[in-house]
């Protein structure tokens, strides 16, 4: 679920900043440059939580502690999470854009 959420954030970041510029035209340049507010959180989650687990599982497969079929299922699940995260991103567009507008107003 965390991977789905991170993928949704990562997908929606740039689109949300563009939409935020549409919502608040006087701050559109600031909003357009704030996609990192959304993408930064997703990058941290992926780098700190998701990627290390995949690396450990890859090492376990090489050393024989995890079967190759289980590893393939895990990778298939991660791919499915990317697809579901992309679909979830559509629902997150407006809330993410509103967050970016609030940040732009605070700046």
Features of this protein?
107 residues; mainly alpha
Question: Quick gist of this model?
Answer:
The protein has helices spanning 2-23, 28-32, 35-63, 68-106. The protein has 107 residues and is mainly alpha-helical.
What does this structure look like?
- There is one protein chain.
- The protein has 107 residues and is mostly helical.
- It has one domain (2-106).
- The protein has helices spanning 2-23, 28-32, 35-63, 68-106.
- It is elongated.
- The model has no long low-confidence stretch (mean pLDDT 90).
Compute the separation of the termini in Å: 32 Å
- Shape annotation: elongated
The number of helical elements comes to: 4
- The secondary-structure class comes to mainly alpha
Which consecutive residue ranges, at least 5 long each, have pLDDT under 50? Answer: none
Task: Please describe the biggest sheet, giving its number of strands, its sense, and whether it closes into a barrel.
Answer: none
Task: Break the fold down into its secondary structure elements and pairings.
Layout: H1 2-23, H2 28-32, H3 35-63, H4 68-106
């Amino acid at each position: 679920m965390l991977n789905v959420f991170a993928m949704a954030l990562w997908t929606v970041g740039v689109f949300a900043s563009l939409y935020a510029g549409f919502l608040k035209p006087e701050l559109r340049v600031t909003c357009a440059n704030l996609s990192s507010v959304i993408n930064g959180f997703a990058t941290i989650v992926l780098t700190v939580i998701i990627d290390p687990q995949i690396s450990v599982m890859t090492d376990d497969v090489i050393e024989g502690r995890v079967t190759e079929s289980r590893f393939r299922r895990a990778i298939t699940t991660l791919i499915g999470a990317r697809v579901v995260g992309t679909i979830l991103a559509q629902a997150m567009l407006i809330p993410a854009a509103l967050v970016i507008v609030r940040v732009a107003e605070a700046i």
